[in-house]
Design a protein that fits this description.
The protein is an alpha/beta fold. Helices cover 37% and strands 21% of the residues. The protein has 4 domains: 172 residues, 3-Layer(aba) Sandwich (Aminopeptidase), CATH 3.40.630; 289 residues, Succinyl-CoA synthetase domains (Rossmann fold); 154 residues, Succinyl-CoA synthetase domains (Rossmann fold), CATH 3.40.50; 124 residues, ATP-grasp fold, B domain (D-amino Acid Aminotransferase, Chain A, domain 1), CATH 3.30.470.20. The strands form 7 sheets. Strands 1-2-3-4-5-6-8-7 form an 8-stranded mixed beta sheet, with helices on both faces. A 7-stranded mixed beta sheet has the order 17-16-19-18-20-21-22, sandwiched between helices. β16 and β17 form a beta hairpin. α8 runs parallel beside α9, α11 packs parallel to α12 and α15 crosses α19. The radius of gyration is 30 Å and the shape is globular. It starts with 11 loop residues before the first strand and ends with a strand. The relative contact order is 0.06.
Amino acid sequence: MFRVITDGTQFREYVLLRDGQGVLLRMATPADLPIIHDMLSGVSRESLRMRFMGSMKQAPAKFVDGLCSEDPHDRACLLAVMGEGPEAKVVGFGNYVSLGARNTADVAFIVADEFQGRGISTLVLERLAGIAAGVGFVGFEADVLFENQQMTRVFRDSGFEARQVMDGGNYHVEFPVSGAAAVLERAELRERTATANSMARLLRPRVVAVVGASREQTSVGSRIFQHILENNFTGTVYPVNNQAVSVHGVRSYPNVGQLPEPPDLVVVAVPAEGVVPVAEEAVHAGAKGLIVVASGFAETGEEGAALQNRLVDVVRSNGARLVGPNCLGLLNTDPAISLNASLASAMPPVGRIGFFSHSAALGIVILQYAGERGLGFSTFVSAGNRADVSGTDVLEYWEEDPATDIAMLYLEAFGNPRRFGRVARRVSSRKPVLCVKGARSRAGVSAAGAHIGAAPVGDVEVDALFHQAGVIRVDTLEELFDAALLLAHQPLPGGDRVAILSNSGGVVTITADACDAYGLNVSKSGLIDLGPQAGAEDYRTAVQRALEDPRVDAVIAIFLCVGECDPELVARGIRRGVIGAEHATGVTKPVLLSMMGATGVVKFAFEGKGALADRKTEFPSYRFPEAAARALAHAVAYAAYRREPPGRLVWYEGTDPTRARAVIEAAMRDHPADAGPHSLTRQRASEILDCFGIAVAAGAPRRDEAPRIELRVRQHHVFGPVVVLGRPGQPAVVRITPLTDQDARGMLKTVGLPPDGEEVELLCRLSQLIEELPWLAELNA
């Protein structure tokens, strides 16, 4: 993902290639010359010809020696590295060299033959552009042989606004190094594909090995191995144990390297001190995914954190992914996979909900409770310390997973909240994303830090992030399942107008109060007291009449059993009313039941016809009607979000970020590096704002009747730049950058300003400034 990189000399980032393989990108240093020579000596003469635009047996020695400059103001080389220590090897690199006065640089790439076509050059280009922009370059230039179509596609598909001309039979390409919206959109698409492919290796393996599987029935490894067998995994599973010939009747192997075939997924069920050697053995044997269930890592303090960092380096440097450590494992209920690589004793019912949890033990309880409520899962991942795989990675997998319709998350911390926001915004435009965010209180933060090593984050910023991304935030696990029950089994409401019907006037009143408290709209005609003697036919008539009313968007039907009664008959009456209304109008509306004591779903063997052929026939039932009202309110808010036009990241032309960076660089030269944040003079601040088309009023502040608006930008230690907009004496609205045009309109509407005025452009230009100038720490206006 393109971004301006302020300190290129220290740059290191693990990235995913198109096929899900991981690779490390880092700046070259003089110590890397031997492995660069090794890489260049192994590429074909054709690859050398494409890179150097002429036939040669080997790369010129002078060229190689000049790669490892440590001054990105003049030149820089970014390596793609696999492996670590003595086994590290360069699989590709890109470099730029300054062309002098025009603040442009010549850029070129070369990739090892066996790694070509996997996206390395594009990823290196994005990061090199960010490093170059951070030291004042405005653009890149490149000369490409006419027949080098692979490199031509790299420039064309990058999203940078490349200008390409023929020059003596070759292409000459020029483009600015800036974060235009097209660059970000293309990068998101590449990231989405790479992440989904990397997660598929974990969730859809063909070969699984369990290290630590033993004959001891109660051991962690034995239980996970047994769960894989008992749930009829469709692939092959091997126990790895150097002390046993067989485990549960299956031949055992002394180490991963001696397995008859390379494993896709390795479950590491050994104590913490033995995890890293096993991980090294697994990745060298070809494993692309690891699950580490042991505790004793970052959640225990500095020593454990160092061990966890070592584990992550081993996994990532060899192109693999890691779930855990300190986790429950994962499940995939797809009958074509049927994998229970976890400590959960039973596979949950097959369903269309994906669930991700930071907590291991909580995950087991949730799986059991969900089954009792009538909810089924497609996949489940317990990430524990989320040292590598995060909730965002799993969410990105669910985005295109045809087996998942709803995403459920239990989170206690964010690794990269800006990336989470981008992904969640895309997913929620198609599928509901529900989340319980733990560690909200001071006590909760302490507890999260103790069991998964989570860092605290502000609740105001979390609310802003979820609001912008369309995430349905709930406060409790029960509320999470109440909302999921409705979204899994009923259509989204067309509005907030609800009809309430019951055989108790008191319950109608209680439910109306709850609906009003949750922001739902209940009219007098929508309050229906059927009387204590109401039977199935009374409910059928009332439900059908309410659903046929165009002024009603949803129905909550409540039944209290008085004397001799059969709730099943009443439920069937409600079902007939729903069928009648849908056949009469051709419109589906959500119906929620409260049978006053029963929870879960009420199922009927009804098959719709025509436009109703796909109508779900399960109705969510809640123990008390207040829970139904709360769940409906979440669905109404989410449906309203879905009806809004998608936000657009606006990137204005005619801006001059290069001049703005020069102003900042000049200011930083006048300011000691260790003196902390530096306040710009009004003149310099005005000049920077002018570079982005933001005018600064001259003279004294206005004293007319126009409302005074306060605008701030501040840096958050986890969320990055945050924009705060408000009026004196009123609560301010907070949003995470970058802002879309819809974010800007929503902010203005919240503080009582017209959502279509010139302030929309002001906020969007400010957002662009923030993205282009990562040195900005604070702004007040």
